[in-house]
Amino acid sequence: MxxxxxxxxxxxxxxxxxxxxxxxxxxxxxxxxIFGKCEFLNPGASVKDRAALGIVRDxxxxxxxxxxxxxxxxxxGNTGIGLALVCNALGYRCVIVMPDNQSREKIDTxxxxxxxxxxxxxxxxxxxxxxxxxxxxxxxxxPGAVWANQFDNTANRKAHIETTxxxxxxxxxxRLDGFTCAAGTGGTIAGVGLGLKERxxxxxxxxxxxxxxxxxQYFANGELKAEGSSVAEGIGQGRITGNLxxxxxxxxxxxxxxxxxxxxxRLLREEGLCLGLSSGINVAxxxxxxxxxxxxxxxxxxxxxxxxxxxxxxxxxxxNPEWLxxxxxxxxxWLRRD
Length: 338
Ligand code: PMP
Description:
The protein contains eleven helices and ten strands. The protein has 338 residues and is α/β, with parallel strands linked by helices. The protein has two domains: 195 residues, Rossmann fold; 100 residues, Rossmann fold, CATH 3.40.50. A six-stranded mixed beta sheet has the order 1-2-10-7-8-9, with helices on both faces. Strands 5-4-3-6 form a four-stranded parallel beta sheet, with helices on both faces. It binds 4'-deoxy-4'-aminopyridoxal-5'-phosphate (PMP). The site of 4'-deoxy-4'-aminopyridoxal-5'-phosphate (PMP) has 19 residues, from α7.
């Protein structure tokens, strides 16, 4: 029997409702079923399309964003791409503030999508000229503008409660034992965690934290403390953001870039999935969670994680042997030139 893909009334409706795929290698390693939510299939090729749409819809509902208005955000990554597309679809201006040391591709991508870019010199968060503070000020000074504020605006996690969590639950017909992912803003882990716990308190929610982030220590023993570093983009948080407040985290894993890259490589070569490093870190976390649920004696546990964005966004970084070697990271076998 073939399944007919759904008809969508307009392009914005392509955000969300992503497929869930069983991951063969990770399932074999964990000894149970591991599923990946295919967020790289969103129009902006990342999970952040959901937050972008949620934040814009919330600002409209509160009357803050009027027809022809403007959305301002400080971001160098996927949120800017999501906001640029959503703003185009709804007729808003989109202004993105970012540090001027970001990769050429990021600047070119946002510009190509029609976002207005404001480039500022990189500086520490405590400096009032930091790109996040600049974006807040710019929003305040621009008539008809709203500040997306993805870290502390809980419209971000609400989008995941209402869409991502609900979809996962329906796709697995309520039969799942664990969920894990890493945190950037924390919108995904908190929103999916809250949404799943609403339906079944016994689903284990695990944080998969990269090195260099402070949340592993926070959830393990209450202390915001970072160790090591990571080259993963979009994840790694040093504070309890508004979106992370009250997140129902039951357990946590610390995942190295090497472990994440191991899964990025295997998912590409064994399953034909080209993903970014945060997805690899999530899958490493899902394997760890699956193993621990098996060890606890849960019968045939099912674990879900997020495949956050496409690897095509990282051709100059994790798919580039010179870049990997310069960072002291293992080069993928098939890219080795020696
Ligand atoms: N992976 C990537 C590639 C991202 O861009 C982000 C967003 N910052 C995340 C993971 C984490 O998502 P969240 O902000 O919902 O924690």
